[in-house]
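User: Quick one: structure for sequence A, then sequence B.

Assistant: Sequence A:
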Amino acid sequence: MLLNEHKSKLLFEKALIPVPQGTAVFPGEEDGFSTDFPLPWFLKAQVLSGGRGKAGGILRIDDPAQFPDKARKLFNRSIKGEAIPFIRVEPGENIEREFYLSLTVSREHRCILLTTGRQGGIEIEKLGSDNLLVQKVTLPGGIVPHQIRAAFFHLGLEKEQFQPFHELLTKLFGCMLDNGLLMAEINPLILTPDNRLLALDGKVEMDDNFADLNPDSEAFYQREHATLEENMARDAGLSFVRLPGWVGLMVNGAGLAMATMDLLNFSGLPASNFLDLGGAADQKRMETALELLFGDAQVKTIFINLFGGILSCEKVAMAMTGALGGKSPQKPIVARMSGKDASAGLRILRELDVDNLHITEDMQSAIGILDTLRPAGSAAVDFPAPLDIPLGPGPDPAGYSSAAAFTINQSTPVLVQGITGREGRLHTQLMLEYGANVVAGVTPFKGGEEVLGVPVYNSIAEAVRVHEIGASIIFVPPRMAADAVAEAVANEIPWTVCITEGITQHDMLAAFVRAKGSSTRIVGPNTPGIIVPGQTKIGIMPTRPFSPGPVAILSRSGTLTYEVADRLTRAGIGQSLCVGIGGDPFIGTNFVDMFEMIRNHEETKVVIVLGEIGGQAEENLAEYVVRTGFDKPVISFIAGQTAPAGKRLGHAGAILDSGGGIMDKLETMGRAGFAVCPSLEAVAETTAKALK
């Protein structure tokens, strides 16, 4: 959640960080505005995009009589296409010097970066490397005294300014921790002639997971920056992003949603939105989603694409039936269902027997139907054709060997953390039904109970006195999940699979620091888990799509894993193991770690990598494959290739950094010998060729 300057400064004030006086003024309040601020005043447009100074978004006035006209001038302006919902009025400040100061969670470095600049301003990145000092701050430790000293001396401040600077930086870091911030930037931090340090401008980004867990954070969300549709979706718990096309999109799961968006865009049927129902598509969510798409004049046709994994297609069909109220949809709908309870779901929709509803269980058939529904005069949105890179010869041998082994099989004893909760109990039953060797569960203060014949203990320490544990699986709420990971690590459990999503990034950063050097392999968080088809599953994966065979699937997306496994199974290609490495920015076991084990896994002959936009996971894997001479064929598919830069699509990991990079990712994989598939349709065919 990105905060505008006004909200950022309110948060800074709460943390006792010095900021200028300021007040918000909204359209319609221009004529009645008055303040006792000393002149001159600065009128500052409140937008989320950068560069407002260059765009004329900051105006100075020296006479209060100028205020109404200049305020209206700002309200009638837009900055980078963004309307100005309100302005912040501040008195001018005398400036002796300007600096840059920020704290940022770094995905690449897996820590917080403390950055200080001898100069601040709107083009901080162009001031040269000597201007900035960047220091790594780890959690849970935090900033240490020598880092504060280094930052202070880098700025060249006088000795008497050390204590105020120390206090300001300490408070800024406290503000970051207390509010789950991913970024806290002061640019510029100014020194006034009377030796005051002041945050003249500020930008803050709050972790969405932290905001979800702390309702008080809602006060910092500015609804005026979002569209009506975005606010409706947010209120309903839906992930929604507007896009420029005309096909309204509704999918379950961020990975499948991104792949579907790409398929539409590459097929000349441009998507008008990204809408992820998530794992819960009840009638209320379905009603909200349909209301959004029916009410959007840009949407001409709707594509509902569902693969039932945990989600039941039958229940979705029932929710959709209720949402439609037995009437024909207001706009044509193409509904594709596959996976869990798909036959029942399709039957329910067919029995509606209404116009404007087209039903299929195949994505390619759905594309064909959508093409026949193309509205006359629909605007074209051009996308380059997807890269189709055939399987290469593979890297040269490097004489590399690894002692790592994938040790999970049907005899692996499993412990369930959070076994007495609703999700823990449900998936314990499903794991037992598949043949998993679940031997124990843990829930504090529930020790001595039994769940489905499985003994429950108060702690892992109690359980390991009685049982040998090969893996644990975590069904613990987000607030406690990082500590549950730490408990598994402290008890040296060989594998721990963290299913929980919605954990704050700060918590996971601290958990991984604590786990450094441990023998425990952490999978996740926000993962569907692990399945060894025909043997065991330690996770929430549905069993229907999977079958035993020679292909390993490694994926950042649950729904894509199910979709691809189903396509392989239908093509007569089984799987040796399937691991969801997790969709969050910070995860434990990554693609490279899994390849270290798979190179020694005799059952695996081919590896499929299902990646996403954002991060460097796939590039790091390509570098590893070349450097170590990995000799098994690698088939890859990357979802989200047509995503708009800087937009977050679904779970926290699915974001493409501004400036692109997707082509570099794909080409890097191709140079490493990976087959880069242009579509999901091509994955099974390419895999079959590789097996021959």
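Sequence B:
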Amino acid sequence: MNKVIRIGTRDSELALWQANTVKEQLEALGHHTRLVTVKATGDLMLDQPLYELGITGIFTKTLDVAMIKGEIDIAVHSMKDVPTALPKGIVQAAVLERANYLDILAYKHNEEFLAEREAVIATGSLRRKAQWLNRYPTHTVVDLRGNINLRHQKLKNNDWNGAIFAAAGLERIALEPENTIGLTWMLPAPAQGAIMVVAMEEDDYVRQACAALNHEHTALCVGLEREFLRILEGGCTAPIGALAKIDREEQVVLKGVLLSVNGQKKISAEYKAPLGKHQQLGELCAKHILERGGKRIMNELLGSEQQKTAQVFATRKLTDEQLQLFNEALSVTSEDFIKVSPSRIAAVAIKEPIQNVVLTSQNAVTALLTNFEPEQLRFQNIYCVGRKTKRLIEKRIGPVAHTAKNAKLLAEYLVEYMEGLELTYFCSDIRMDVLPDILTENKITVHEIAAYKTKYVAVPLPESVASVLFFSPSAITSFLQENEPKDRIAYCIGETTAKEARTHFSKVLVAKIPTVESVIDLVNASENQS
């Protein structure tokens, strides 16, 4: 048992709770483990496109990639988020005992609105929306996205009557609102309340270790629910609920439901069989629904999805949580228009201590750490651009003397306050001229070292893309190699990027704060007004 099992997880509070639960159970069995938090970034490099690997789950894709690359040994997921078809080479290693599977309604003041004609309920789930409207057809359902903490806060900040949550998620992080109602009439998402562990098929040691965590009855029930989902789904997101239980008589009971998005159409099924003769229940329920109008509903949903156009395009691969922040009405796609790879930096470049160093991006920091150990980087004064770059530097290298919002502001600060008259600038082989130009004009010597290479990898965008998100001037340059601005709106992360965009686009909007989330807020506000 000497091998350390690396447990991959997203970094939300709920995901970490689930990963730590698996960690504790494995360690109780004598295994050594380590948590590895994984973010969806534009630096995930594979020899094959993700679609060729069969990776489709918006909440699981990043961890699947990390596992395929050998960065983690297992991944821990909310099982309801896992696609019914796992990527090639990845298998289910364990399903933990199911927690509370119910949906719950968290409400503001009292329950009187349930008997009223007008009420506003928030949820980002098609399944919850459809079932709510089926029961309360005159109510209004508004979109609610983000991680569980953010959704809870949005409920507090808005004048909605209530919002729907998964009970298990709230209970796991002790975030149970004061006023709640268990929605016992609402069928949950298939596998809601269950935690799934996946591993590489070829890793026998890890699979055997995880097998001891498997809860057989839970695995059996959620397996039936997911089979029901798989048969109905047809590659299309649909309002589907399912719940399987084993009763006291050792009977396995499966209930399933399919609805139209507006809740006006609802088809249900319920089948049971003795334990041991239950294997066909998922198929029986699905066929029952399909034969009684389910095919028509699914065809309508599929046709609706195919009519959607990619209205918004981001030139950086967005994380799963970032994609969830967009308004539901927007169809958003994202791809990296810039690929970055560290350059080989000669050891002589850092042989002697350096008095002043400038790092204008996280890519430069990563490139340095790829070439050298942190203790080799003997920098007296480090200056940088951006809070995230600052955090990375201080976490991995050392204190930052000063940080600025953009290169121009940093250059102006250095002219006024920097000690000495020379500095070393670790940058890309393609970089903006503003910082070195200002410094050179003020008699400061700049020693440039190309720490990483930037490659333009834009793809042609369809005519339907009306808005493009840019996070750097380089992304605009890349975009223009394959696309025309036309009448598209350019959403920019900061003024430096916006300045470049204005030379090509007739309409340019700039985020208030230089963060991806602020750009998304800007898109949502602008698209709502249009």
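Confidence is low (pLDDT under 50) at residues 40-57. The longest strand covers residues 445-456.

User: Thanks, that's what I needed.
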